[in-house]
Amino acid sequence: MPIFGRKKQREEAPRQQAKEAGGDLAPKLPASQIYIKASPLNELSDVDYVKEEVSTGNIVILKITPLARKSFDDTKKAIHELSEFVAGIDGDIARLGEERIVVAPSGVKIWREKAGRGSG
Question: Smallest Cα–Cα separation from 51: which of 74, 78, 85?
C-alpha cells in the first residue's frame, strides 16, 4: 500500500509547485479549436477543401483510394499540390499506410520512425 501512496505524492508534487508559483501544467490552447478531420479524396478538386481546412489550423487525414481508383495521375497531382502547399505554410504531410495521408498545418510536425529501426 505505501508504494502507491509514494507514487501519488511524486505525481502531485510538480502540480503543487506549479500552483504555488502561479502557473499551471495544463497545455495552453489557442483561442480557436483544432480538429482532426477524416475525409475521402474523391476528386482532384477536393484538394481545395483540404487546403482550406489546414489553413484554419485543422489536421486532415485523407483516404486517397477513391481518387487512386479513378486516376493515378490525378492522385499524384493532388499529393504534389498538397506537398507544395504545406511546404509553403511550414506544415507537414506524411503517408499513413497504403490508403491514407495526413496533412498538418504550421506548428504541427508529424513524427516519422527512422529507417532501419524495427527491422532485422
Answer: 85
| pLDDT in single tens digits along all 120 residues of the chain | 455 555 445 445 555 555 555 555 445 555 578 999 999 999 999 999 999 999 999 999 999 999 999 999 999 999 999 999 999 999 999 999 999 999 999 999 999 887 665 544
Residue 86 has φ and ψ, to the nearest 5°, of: -70, -30
Q: What is the pTM of this model?
A: 0.68
Task: Delimit the domains of the chain by residue range.
Answer: 36-104
CATH number of 36-104: 3.30.110.150
